[in-house]
Amino acid sequence: MPRRSADAINAPDASSGPDASTDTVVTVTCETDSDCTVTKACRTGTCDQATGTCAYATDSESCFIDGDCFNRDQAQPGDGCKICDPDLNQNDFVNKLCADGETCDSVTGECTGASLATTCGLCSSSDDCETGLTCQAVGVGMFCTQTCAADTDCEQGFVCGDVGGASLCLLATGGCAAEGSACVVSGDCEDLNPCTTDLCNADACTFSNDDSVSEACYSGDPTTRGVGTCVDGTRTCSGGVLGACVGDILPESFDVCGDAADNDCDGTPDQDCQFVSVDLSPVTAVASGEIGTTGDTLHVTFDSTPVGPAADASAPIKVDLGFYPPQF
Ligand SMILES: [Ca+2]
Ligand SMILES: [Ca+2]
Ligand SMILES: [Ca+2]
Hints:
binds calcium ion, 328 residues
């Protein structure tokens, strides 16, 4: 298809002056913009008052090629591998870009030829991954995966798991390498499961359970781990799966007063504790009943004729009420 010169492409449309389908450079004189009419939706005409001639421009999201308008990414008729890309050229079609290793099918316009990696496929960049997946570090290897909020965000067979604080679609084993996955070094086979030994044998990942593995654990708020009376427990592998955390000591709901220990593991022992006693020396009382062994009840009644302690009338009478807040 013959191409017209850039000047001709900027010429007015057929209805607004000389025939724009020819390669003739045309100039249309004008007094106002209305003299510079256009018939193509992607074009605008304005009158340059200084020269009295029309100037024509193409919308930024369109191409104006051989007298016709094309939208961004619209293919050249008959060749799906040439498209309008107004960022590169508004006056001609440009080659459609395909990913590395792919070729463009001019009939369908599709980029084909490369087999892109699916979730947990090895990659060196996101160009190696299927649409929607990005190449990310999982363990010590790079795999195609995606962020997720729940298992349902991942394709069938994958779960939403944590990798260094990021939620990614992973294998059910928690990692991104499966038995038989292609590998170069054992690090490519990291499955994030401490209960398996990950090896690359003859370029394929193999995994074997190691139930001798145990590790420290803590099932409470991480900010309280190792603080005060809070200590780690242990969990042990069994059948290739880590067991529950056993033996960890979690924070008490309140800090027990008087034991000098930080029972709620907030970093301060016995905070907000106050030992309360009441000085009854301003009053005198008569005790009734007998005081014997621990556990007997002391009944205190106030008498209209106060009498102090017989042994030492000047000794203060104190009643210890214990710690406040009360301990349960
Ligand atoms: Ca492992
Ligand atoms: Ca305490
Ligand atoms: Ca405390």
